[in-house]
Specification:
This protein has 3 helices and 20 strands. The protein is an alpha/beta fold.
């Protein structure tokens, strides 16, 4: 079900599941997982997805990666949009409904939170968190300020389709059902 441009290359140890489109000149390196079993993934032209990155499409939140984007090792992209020429460093997490604007730079272990929009040409510093639309940038030690903004973005509903306060037992029952026995 995957569509790979003839000029693209996917490492033999990378895993592509479901509706994945890999564009011209793109490279998907060893150990990367592109799981589109629950929503499509589109990888643009001249994109490099490095080792052990995990990319997921989600119901209602396809993952779209524009052209000339670097996705660093161990990055986690989940139902988001990355516009052209975005740099995603090692260990970055980008959640559903988020948009990383053109030419933005997300440095090592930074987070672009659910339903947040990082403006074009923005640098998100090492370990910092971007929250809101438009995103405000916070160092990780400002939890109370981050939470004040994050609460309204409705992470549980966006990521799991449940209202805040739903028990982990219910969330995990649903997640277990969504990720079926075939390993999707």
């Amino acid at each position: 079900m995957s569509t790979i441009d003839p000029t693209a290359w996917v490492a033999p140890s990378a895993v592509l599941i479901g509706d994945v489109t890999v564009g011209p000149g793109a490279r998907v390196l060893h150990g990367a997982v592109l799981n589109a079993s629950r929503g499509p993934i589109t990888v643009g032209e001249d994109v490099v997805v490095m080792e052990n990155a995990v990319l997921r499409g989600r119901p209602g939140h396809p993952l779209h990666i524009g052209d000339a984007v670097l996705v660093g090792p161990h990055a986690h992209l989940n139902g988001a949009t990355l516009e052209d020429e975005v740099f995603v460093a090692t260990g970055v997490s980008i959640f559903a409904g988020a948009v990383a604007g053109a030419r933005s730079e997300l440095q090592v272990n930074s987070v672009l939170h659910v339903n947040s929009r990082l403006a074009p040409d923005t640098v998100l510093p090492i370990g910092w968190i971007a929250v809101g639309n438009p995103a405000q940038l916070f160092p990780p030690d400002r939890h109370d300020e981050i939470w004040a903004m994050q609460e309204g973005l409705d992470f549980p509903m966006t990521m799991y389709g449940v209202p805040r306060g739903t028990s982990m037992r219910e969330i995990m029952r649903r997640q277990s059902a969504a990720y079926g026995p075939d390993g999707d």
